[in-house]
Amino acid sequence: MNNFPKLSLTLLAAVIALAACGKKEEPAAPAAAVESAAAQACGKVTVANMNWQSAEVLAHIDKLILSSGYGCEVELVPGDTMPTLTAMMEKGKPDVAPEAWINAVRQPLDAAVKQGRLHYAAESLKDGGVEGWWIPKYLADAHPEIKTIDDALKQPKLFPAPEVKDKGGIYNCPAGWNCQLTTGNAFKAWGAADKGFVLVNTGSAAGLDGSIAKAYERRQGWLGYYWAPTSILGKYQMVKLDAGVPFDKENFDACNSKADCDNPVKTDWAKAVVFTVVTDRFKQAGGPAFDYLSKRNWGNDTVNQLLAWMSDNQATGEDGARHFLKTQPEIWTTWVSPEVAEKVKASL
């Protein structure tokens, strides 16, 4: 203050009055300008590029929208569920996990959110990750009486096993996957062997997918384990059977998901809760970019169709992201402001 000229109060008032004389009041900055200025604060953002197809394409969608729409400097970093969420909880990096399947880490993740170190943004998959036993839609349409697993097990002749004559087949999950255990235990819990069925081992994910494709080509019955979102369900319409019973977490965790389960019970599969998780740093700095991630979600049908397109075209995650943004603006433009939407469209 000592360096300022020592003007009298009267003179200072006169100077201010003269400066203001005849000057029009400046209009408030338009919303777009405010949003643009706020986006400057977004700065550098690290986004986890998870190692499965749906998460990969979502990471690239986020990169395109955050960079072209909000001016963020986005870096995609390799990720997987446990390593990524553990790093976010312990080190505050990466900034964003676009598709975090949180069931297995719900307790420590909730604790980190309660402490303010991490935050839940949008529920990435609004209908969650889904698993269970499925049949082809053409078969469900032809046999509307089949709604549950019990209904399907009453008709083994509709689901012929590929190599066992006069037996129905239930296609198992790929070898070494945890769902191979849960499917085998469900087979026992529902007494499928006594009802004329055998377990069909597919060997690999490609083998499981191929069995569905083959059934569709021949319009044959098919019954087995699958999950969503996946490209195969975007290519072939399948119907998930109702388990007919609720999810029994205690018995599922203690026995149905174990290799040495002697007395498995009938239980539904848990709906996988899938969120976008962000660090506190990004929430505080991101401004409108965080608002976008709080609105950005989509359904399994949309994801299945996109993944099917990617598989058919051998497309990368970035290819899939650009295809989605070009062809389905009716979905993604609801996540952003009109000004941001125009920036994104111009960048494609």
Question: Could you describe the 3D structure shown?
Answer:
- The protein is 47% helix and 15% strand.
- By secondary structure, it is α/β, with parallel strands linked by helices.
- Helix 3 packs across helix 17 (338-347).
- The two termini are 53 Å apart.
- Residues 1-39 have low confidence and may be disordered.
Give the overall pLDDT as a whole number: 89
Shape: globular
Q: From the alpha-carbon coordinates, what is the Rg to the nearest angstrom?
A: 27 Å
**Percentage of residues in strands:** 5-15%
Class inferred from helices and paired strands? alpha/beta
Q: How many β strands by DSSP?
A: 10
Q: What is the distance, rounded to the nearest whole angstrom, between the alpha carbons of the first and last residues?
A: 53 Å
Most strands sheet? 3 strands, antiparallel
List the helices and strands and how they pair.
Blueprint: H1 9-20, H2 31-40, E1 44-50, H3 53-70, E2 73-79, H4 81-91, E3 96-101, H5 106-114, E4 118-120, E5 130-136, H6 137-142, H7 149-153, E6 168-171, H8 178-189, E7 197-200, H9 205-218, E8 224-228, H10 231-235, E9 238-240, H11 249-256, E10 274-279, H12 280-286, H13 288-295, H14 300-312, H15 317-327, H16 329-332, H17 338-347
Helix pairs in contact: 3-15, 3-17, 12-13, 14-15
